Amino acid sequence: MARDYDSAVRAGAMAAGRLHRRLDTQALIGRHGGNVDVFGAIHALDLPLLLRPLKGLLGAYLSSPAPGVLVTTERPMSIQRFTAAHELGHFFMRHEPSLDDESILRRMPMSPEPGNQFQETEADAFAIAFMIPKWLIALHCARQGWTVDELRRPNIAYQLSLRIGASYEATCRTLFRYKLISDAVMRELLETKPRSLKVDLLHDYRPADYRGDVWLLTERDEGARIDGSRNDLFVLRLKEHSGGGFLWDLDQLMASGFAVVRDEREAFDAEAVGGPVVRRVTAAPEAAQRGRMSLNERRPWQSATANASLTIDFDFTGPEQEGLSRAERRHLLEAA
Predict the structure, then answer these.
(1) Three-state helix/strand/coil letters over 217-233
(2) Quick one: pLDDT at residue 332?
(3) How far is the C-alpha of 60 from the C-alpha of 87, rounded, in Å?
(4) In angstroms, rounded to a whole number, what is the distance separating the alpha carbons of residues 100 and 86?
(5) What is the percent of the chain with per-residue pLDDT over 70, rounded to a whole number?
(6) pLDDT tens for each residue of 62-76
(7) DSSP secondary-structure letter at 153?
(8) Which residue of 136, 156, 207, 211 has the fewest CB atoms within a 10 Å radius of its CB?
(9) Closest among 12, 41, 43, 15 to 28, alpha carbons compared
(10) Per-residue confidence band for 100, with pLDDT thresholds at 50, 70 and 90
(11) Is pLDDT larger for residue 92 or for residue 64?
(12) What's residue 75's pLDDT?
């Protein structure tokens, strides 16, 4: 185990890189998109996992009589994923048993008060490097067309956090850790609360609460995989060539199990006449589910011919519930 803080951070990050190479994570995400499947990695390593309500703890790593990890069911999905990655780090780095409370969130690398428990620092650094490798940020920025300079915008940092499966705060701190933003920009970003970003995205639609996240999806998300929670909403913002008779078929969206709660059009070019508009649709899953959403832009009288299409694989069954993880359930279904 490392003997100082900097060495512990390096050791944890290097261990995460080794596991990524072992699991070929970068190639897998490069093909299919999405985030790092932490629970899938735990399953791939045959590491026993127990999900259950835990009083006063986020998770635990046990090494005797056989290695195993526990993760709470009483926290949002981003915290569950970080906790699982932290416990995975303990296992992969052959640490001593550990009972982990919310201090693991305060000890994240580059956060205040790093502390001097270097086993825990190693596990925290492993968790960040495994969940949010720099190449994952680069992949999503390239897909969305985001520049490094745009990462200073709260709405961009928030949408990035959803795609990499981390909390908004952890994303901002990690951007600083990778020197993609300055300390001053990080602090400015952290002054913006995710709730205000959700309100801005939803315009005048008011959900029952703001516990869920709000995804902004565009044509750049074609073929993407999104991993969210049952309370999430999404806003589709798609160019529509209505002047030529082409309309996005929202019946397909509803057939995929989503309720349309708001539908509006915005001018794409205020000075153009008869040009395309922006179709802005706010939708919510009618139940916790996973599947594929497909939409076509087509003329109603020529339904067989699509001018454009959008297909997204989604999983809105989070957070993890008591029992088997979602990754384990998927594996069992695929093997059946």
Answers:
(1) ECHHHCCCEEEEECCCE
(2) 86
(3) 6
(4) 9
(5) 95
(6) 999 999 999 999 999
(7) S
(8) 211
(9) 41
(10) very high
(11) 92
(12) 95
Q: Tell me which fold the domain 200-318 belongs to.
A: Immunoglobulin-like (2.60.40)
Q: Tokens in use for 130? A: 């495994």
Chain centre distance of CA 272 = 37
Nearest to 20 by CA among 140, 167, 132: 132
Strand order across the 258-267 sheet = 214-217, 233-240, 277-285, 258-267
Residue 292's DSSP bridge partners are 313
- pLDDT, tens digit (0-9, with 9 covering 90-100), for 269-291: 655 556 789 999 999 999 989 99
What is the CATH architecture assignment of 5-131?
Orthogonal Bundle (1.10)
Alpha helix stretches (DSSP H) within the chain: 5-23, 25-32, 38-44, 77-92, 103-106, 118-131, 134-144, 154-164, 168-177, 183-191, 194-202, 250-255, 326-335
Distances (CA, A) of 174 to 109, 153, 178, 328: 8, 15, 6, 29
Judge whether 137 and 157 are in contact, CB under 8 Å: no
CA distance linking residue 171 with residue 137, whole number of Å: 10
Average pLDDT over residues 104-118: 60
Residue 243, pLDDT > 80, answer: yes
DSSP 117: -
pLDDT above 60 for 140: yes
DSSP per-residue letters across 33-63? -S---HHHHHHHTT--EEEE--SS-SEEEE-
At residue 287, the 3 state secondary structure works out as coil
Answer whether 133's CB lies under 8 Å from 165's CB: no
Q: How is residue 197 written in tokens?
A: 């970003």
